[in-house]
Structure formats: structure tokens, C-alpha cells
Amino acid sequence: MNRILFKTIIILLLSANFACRDSAKNKSANKNNSAKSSAKDNSIRGNFSSQTMLHFDSNSVDQFIKKYPQFRNFQNDIKKFYADRQYAYAWQDTSGMIEQADNLYNQILNIDQEGLSGKILYKDSLTNMFDDSTSRINPEKELMLTAQYFDYAERVWGGISEADTKKLNWLLPRKKLDLPFLMDSLLRDTASSIIKNGYSYRQYSLLKNYLSRYRDIHAKNNWAPIKLDVKSLRKGDSSQTVAAIRERLFVLGDLSENSGLALFDSVLETGVKNYQNRTGSKADGIIGQVMIQQLNIPISEIIERIIVNMERCRWVPVNLSNDYLIVNIPDFRLYAFQHDSLIFSMKVVVGKSVHKTVIFNGDLKYVVFSPYWSVPPGILKNEVLPAIKKDPGYLQRNNMEWNGKSVRQKPGPKNSLGLVKFLFPNEHNIYLHDSPAKSLFNEDVRAFSHGCIRLEQPKKLAMYLLRNDSRWTEDKIDRAMKGGKEQYVTLQNAIPVFIAYLTAWVDRDGNLNLRKDVYKRDNQLADLMLKD
Known about the structure:
- This protein is α+β, with helices and mostly antiparallel strands and 532 residues long.
- 38% of the residues lie in helices and 15% in strands.
- The protein folds into 4 domains: 17-199, no CATH class; 224-297, Orthogonal Bundle (Muramoyl-pentapeptide Carboxypeptidase, domain 1), CATH 1.10.101; 319-375 and 411-514, L,D-transpeptidase catalytic domain-like (Beta Barrel), CATH 2.40.440.10; 376-410, no CATH class.
- It has 20 helices and 18 strands.
- The strands form 5 sheets. Strands 5-6-7-15-13-12-8-16 form an 8-stranded mixed β-barrel.
- α11 packs antiparallel against α15 and α15 packs across α20 (522-529).
């Protein structure tokens, strides 16, 4: 895991990646083969129309919306865009449609390359306008392209509605698109960051490339299930199953070549370890039933996983350049960044399925050494009080005490929060903390908590957070953690924490990483994306 993935969680904007068509005379051929065409260039080439002589009447916008009412949501955006340019044509000049209009048209026809359905509003009207070879200036054609651009931008750059993402309990902030600003920047400056960077972070484009690659695999390969007749296979074993696994790993890119050997050699072992690493398994080079199950996942399911994570890459607007923490729930890891560079990562335990860790963000403000654990009301009612009723010595044995009408656990090595906790006040009552249950960090799937996030190396995080405070040496941190007396420390500068959910991403080595959909959110998101 690396900066590529987690910068994505921070920026997560979509790529525009406008393609260049060959020429205007190939419009009909391109239209008929749009499903097969692909982007050949990652920017809109050529010079945009900066003409200011040709204008149309402002009333044309209302007339256009009356004729094409499904664009009504963009009526104010269209008016704002053209009012700022005194209703000068943007996509046409004295010679007709400019090259970039043709490029955008091609991109709209190929919206399925963005992992979205191919539904295009008023597609027949749009294609008829582009099949019209006349060079006459036409306000309806101008407004059609702008409206199509805004619809494309909202779907591809913004994703499904915020109301829908809240249904998935995704409470990270959503970016707000300023469509007229983006359009104006696009048309005025070919060197702008919107064109240069595709108005996205690199991760989206990397996933998009894998989408195309896996669609090719799906079309060309017979994904027959692989059967493992023994408990496991390891280096030195021979079997026709070994040959089948070698072929599968070659197709997936974990092996650079396929020798066809049925012998489990060192080359295959390296490929197995690579596959295990990128799927979140223990990279021991041994093929067991779990790995076979993963290898047998239908390509169509992986394609869907890529698509839903491309969608998640459309949502979060924040761009950080200083210090922050990221927790990716399906990866069961925390990542600490300093000046936008990854400093370290560690394993975490997240909420079990019935106590899902919430997807949100907050500002970490306090480090609490030797903390009390105030038993949450739900746990008190459902677990602690019944235990007290059955066993009068329960509190003493668990180092607990009454605190008014509630119960709390005293500081100490057996405290459920361990020796330190980290607070970022939030309505979900979620925080980061140590844990006495160290063995859980050895599990591949670490969803065991009641919702809070347990840390494998809490001392390392405390040292990171307090590194700029000379009073907090490593020795003092050790003493505070083991002192047995609760102590709050307020950070000099709060640090953002992002709790996110990605089940697919591309790492710094270009490998597609896949993780188990621990909270079953991928199918929910896919259903929302396809509901129309």
C-alpha cells in the first residue's frame, strides 16, 4: 500500500481523458463502432475556440430546456457558463464545430469505458447533430453539447448522488462540482491542471486501465474452475493443477511468462507470493483452498469490484499536503503520512459485521495514556450487566468499577483499550486504541471489534503524533503508557483521520490489489449505480 492509493482516498476525482477522433469525415464510422473504440490520447489536443464575435440570444437556453427537459437540472449551470462569456459560442466558430467538440462527442459515446452504463440522454438528437455536415452556426447544437458535457461531468466526475452514498453509510465529505468553472477552464486553457491531470488523481486512471484489461480477459478466456485435490501445493510438487494455476497467474499478470510446466518451481512460487500479497493473504508461497477459491472468482465479479471502486474514486474532495492518517477498512491497515509521504503503516482490527466501523473523517486531537474504558451503553446492557448478574465477582476479576450508573474498566495492561487511546471527537463514538488481544493481528481478516479501531503498534503512533513536542520523549511515552494513571495530552495541531472503504486499488508496483468486501458494500453500490 502506498501514496498512490491513499492520495486517491483524499482527492478521488475522476479522469476526463478525452480522446481524439481521426477526422470529421469518420463520424459515422466512429458512431457505429463506438463500443469498440478506445481513448488514444489522455488530453484534448489542439486550440480551443476563443472567438468572441459569434453570440446567441440568452432566451435560447430556456427554449432548449423546454425541448430537452431531462437537462433541466443543468439549466442554471448552462446560463451561468454562457453569461460569463456573454453568450459567445464555445464549441463552434465560423468554420463550424471545433475539433474538441468532436473529441468530447466521442468520449460521451464511450462512457462505458468509465465503468458507467452507456445511457446517453437524447442520444439520437446528439448523433443527428454531429452527422449534420453543414457548417452553419446552430445554438441548439451548441447547447446540446454543453448540456451533454454537464451530464457527462456530473456522472463521471461526481458519481451517484450524495443521498445514495449516505445510504451506504459513506459519511466522508463529497466534493461539490462547479460545472461552469470546469467547462470554462477546459475551454480557455489547454495547459490547465484540469487537462494536464485529467481532473483526477492517477489512481482512477490506473483502475480504468485494469477495467479494460479485465474486460479483455473476460472476452478471451474460458474461466474454468480450478480444482485442488490435495490439501495444499508447494514448491517441488508436481500436478496438472499446478499447470492450470500457472496459466491462471500468467493471465492475471502475476507471472511474466507461462512455461506450461506442471512442476511447482521457484518461478511459480514467486508468482504465487505476488498474488497472495495483492489479495491480502499471507505471502507464504503455498497454494491452499483459500487461494484456489480466490483464483476461481469469476472475472465478471472482479470487473464489478473495479467499477464500484472507480465510483468511490469520484467522491472525496479533500487534498491534503501535510500530516494525516488513513484507515482502509477492507485492508485492515492504518497509514500515517507526513508532508504527503507515507511514513509507516500498521495492521488494525476493525468492527465486525454486526458492529461496522463507520466510513467518515475527523480531526484527532487527544492522546490518552493509561485510559479508563467507559463501557458503552449497548455493551453494558447486552454483555456486562448480564455477566454481573450471573457472577458477582465479574467486576473485580475484570478490573472494573461502577462509575455512577455506568461501569468503567480501570487502567492497566488488561484494559480493553490497552495502554493508550487516540481521540478524534465524533458522533459515532469511534476512536483508535491499543489492545491486549495481540493475537488477532495475526489473522488475515481482522474484523473483530465493536466498531472502534485497534492498533497493532500504538506506541509508534503516539511517537508520531508527539514527535514535535520535545517534552514527550520515548521514555516518557513508555512511562505514561504503563503508569496506571489516566493522562490526557492535547496535540499542538489536530491531525485529520480518514476512515475509508476500498476493495480494489493499484499499488506503486502497478499491481491490482483486491480485498474481501468485509461489510458487503460492493453489491449495494453496484445496485445503486445500475438502478436506472
